[in-house]
Amino acid sequence: MTNSCKAEPPKADSSSNPLLVDYLPTTADAMRNFNPVDGVPKFDEIKTEHFKPAFEEAMNIHNREITDIVNNSDEPSFENTIVALDRAGIKLGEISLIFGMLSSSDLDDEMQEVQNEMMPRLEEHFNAIMLNDKLFQRVKRVYDKRNTLSLDAVDMRLLEKTYNDFVRSGALLQGADKERLMAINAELTTLNIRFGNNLLAENANFEMLLGESQVSELPEGVRNQAKEAAAAAGKSGYLFTLDKPSMIPFLTYSSDRDLRRQIYNGYLMRCNNNNKYDNKDIIKDMVRLRIEKAQLLGYKSYAHYVTDDQMAGTPEAVYTLLEEIYEPALASAKEELAAMNELFLKDHPGAKFEKSDWWYYAEQVRKQKYQLDEEAVRPYLSLDNVRRGMFYLANRLYGITFRPIAVPRYHPECSVYEVLDKDNSHIGILYIDPYPRKSKSGGAWCGNFTEQLYVDGVRKAPVVGIVCNFTPPVGDTPSLLTFDEAETMFHEFGHALHFLFADVKYRGLVDVEGDFVELPSQIMENWAFEPEIMRNYATHYKTGEIIPDNLINRIQKAALFNQGFTTLELTAAALIDMDIHSLETYPVNFDVDAFERYNLATRRGLIPEVEPRYRYTYFAHIFNGGYSAGYYFYLWAEVLDQDAFAAFKEHRDICDAELASVFRYELLAQGGQKPGMEMYRTFRGAEPNKEPMLRARGLWKEPVVVEEPATDTLPEALSTEVSRGVKLRHEQRPAETVRPFRPVDGEVNGNIKSTKRVGNNRVERPKSEN
Ligand SMILES: [Zn+2]
Question: What's the CA-to-centroid distance between 321 and ligand 1, angstroms?
Fold first, then answer.
């Protein structure tokens, strides 16, 4: 901290910088009269050149606020230290959120330059605060006397979380240890960036350029996309790359085995080709440093360090869940393989089925068994319909409404809505930015433009954005979504509701645990293809006809298609993430490839026809993202979302407003004010049950059945069970409980950073890319 507490002279341009304007009232009275529209960022005035000076000024303000806390001559108290720290950096938080959203949805070279320059400086800024010993000593003084302060539960949680954040950042370390931790962090940051850059380079290095005759059997959409990709690269023909939206359709529809093998092997070997982009040495260094870091901070392994402040709590709890899923998923994938192998042998007598054959033959099975053609459903899934459907659902559940409003937008394709509560009071503002463009990152995500916060005891509502890359309209045809896109829309909308409903007293308690994050989003996917919801929104874009029941039925029936494979590759990736981060000592002669093969094939019997969703050398989530020892988050949250949705299914009305109200106020509105498990138990009245999740993935095995003795006097209620000759310990769920389409991937979400840091946007990639 180099700033004095004296106010610095204002920068020449700060008064005209729209990012630095103080728009928020400071008193409760003024806040009550605040027009929420005035809280929308000034998109019509903000220019890229405003960000750097705004960041710099906001860091200065933040530093002055920290200095004021440190230099306060009063005895450290909850108010003058913990609350003051929570209030510090609001301006920096505002700018970071806007920058985070704009740089991911509208990134040009100039914006990229700002990002390259400012991100490391922000990282440094926050690290300096977390390792400011005078500041920590004040926090510790308050923490040490916490039981004498008569704090309520929320205040106590803020105090404990603040203290723990400092400790987890190394504040308790002294001298050489502290220096070493800082050096490790710096080295990890560099390795992280190098890992990502190598992966980008290897992706870019591979291309498969094909001629007309090699793509004639592919669907028109796939051909057009490949043709555009070739044109964009200044080539003629059809270009396929290792990006999943390019590779997976090729693997699915091309009958050419050699080409399938060529592209899939290119994918599997990324950054594992012993060239200058090889990631194996980087991984080894990262693993070694992470073990050292965890042990410096008092943990057995990096996985122990990461899980310690998650719902899971320990690596053992994570392994218990993953192993429970892995075994039935493996069995189920073997059955899927057997079914595909029959078709395969007809095409290739005597040949051996290979991993690159999976998608093509899975598609053959799908056509044969379920007669479901996605193209027949899309005319019912126009973007307008799906948006109407999710607004309808939110209205059924929570009584809220969405009113289009005219406010500044950062791009003309955005539509903007004011979100109103049952009594028409303001909840927040929602931007939806649906279509791809060059300046936008791939995938779909949801984040805050401005966060919910309390001003003098009055809530300021947030401004939230959903950003996607959905199929755009072509000519007279509106945007017609795929299943995956429709499901993603509901998913992101779930994150949006979580942000919009937030009613959290402190900024530091906004974030939930990482393995809880996807609960609010994933639960919404369950409603997307429920017959009674679909009948409301899925009307044919030309004829207005409501989607026919037999189509809905086929959608429902295809729900479990290929789920063994999908679950197995996801679980295998989560397992190898835990394996490498659970190491307590760095292995002698560590061989990354051999370690991966040993843990999957030798130890767990993974079949050679299936690879984990990610192999180590391109597992960006764990070596270039926020998911190290955290790839399991998706599956953990899925147990919660399926069990939570089961609560709705148990009601007569799957949109039961009373139950939804409990979900909203006890869970969504709370942010991180309570531990995730506590909120969950309050909602469900019980611990989460894994059965609905296993059922939804087709992995549920009925418990041991007990023969029912023949008798004439059985109570009426048991008659249906008797007629099946068995007595089931578990309630039989109706077939619709099964969710139609599992994400091909767990999805992401994002930067698991404290709001005091760069932002809390839920950044997601397309399911197929996760
Ligand atoms: Zn998500």
Answer: 20
